[in-house]
């Protein structure tokens, strides 16, 4: 009987680690690395601009747009970090994490459907929202995991967030291999959409 209780307890703990990791820090690592495939997104920006205005962007302007897309994630992350303390104190850590999933799903829908809508601005908005979600989650995840895990395993459970972050970066690298991008020129929106599915698993 005691062994059965032990099994149930640690099975639930493992499930909690997987749910928090896949829907949270794994997704953050994924979003940080997936934007590194510069040429394909720059090509999309150029094609969109050409279709709208009939002219190709100068390289300096293209680089500026690219810089905005990359750096806006950090701006969103800073805002998310600043808000996370207030949100977790007012609404609780679990509700805050669930609400954060909604933000991440909205963000990945923006980036995922950007090619269909022919709007690189949607990537910009999506990246900003992803940054906010990452900033909130990176703080709330550790607090929530530490509070609900057994005292003797608290350190181990908190370390798993870093493991899932690294795994997210690895998955983004694998999905964005140059060969894959060459073979499927319109594949990058679906790389973003994978983040949406991970958010749903947690929700």
From TrEMBL:
Coiled coil: none annotated. It comes from Bubo bubo (Eurasian eagle-owl). GO terms for molecular function: D-glucose transmembrane transporter activity. The chain crosses the membrane at residues 13-34, 64-89, 96-113. GO terms for cellular component: plasma membrane. InterPro entries: GLUT, MFS_dom, MFS_sugar_transport-like, MFS_trans_sf, Sugar_transporter_CS. Gene3D superfamilies: MFS general substrate transporter like domains (1.20.1250.20). This is Major facilitator superfamily (MFS) profile domain-containing protein. It is a multi-pass membrane protein.
């Amino acid at each position: 009987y005691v062994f059965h209780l032990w099994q149930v307890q640690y099975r639930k703990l493992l499930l909690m680690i997987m749910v928090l990791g896949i829907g949270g820090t794994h997704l953050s690592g994924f979003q940080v690395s997936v934007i590194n495939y510069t040429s394909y997104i720059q090509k999309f920006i150029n094609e969109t601009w050409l279709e709208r205005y009939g002219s190709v962007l100068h390289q300096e302007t293209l680089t500026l747009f690219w810089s905005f897309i990359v750096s806006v994630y950090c701006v969103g992350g800073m805002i998310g970090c600043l808000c996370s303390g207030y949100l977790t104190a007012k609404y609780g850590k679990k509700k805050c994490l669930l609400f954060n999933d909604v933000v991440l799903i909205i963000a990945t829908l923006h980036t995922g459907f950007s090619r269909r809508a022919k709007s690189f601005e949607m990537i910009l908005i999506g990246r900003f929202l992803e940054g906010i979600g990452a900033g909130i989650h990176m703080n709330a995840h550790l607090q929530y995991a530490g509070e609900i895990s057994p005292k003797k395993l608290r350190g181990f459970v908190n370390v798993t967030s870093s493991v899932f972050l690294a795994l997210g970066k690895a998955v983004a690298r694998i999905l964005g291999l140059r060969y894959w991008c060459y073979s499927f020129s319109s594949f990058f929106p679906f790389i973003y959409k994978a983040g949406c599915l991970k958010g749903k698993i947690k929700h």
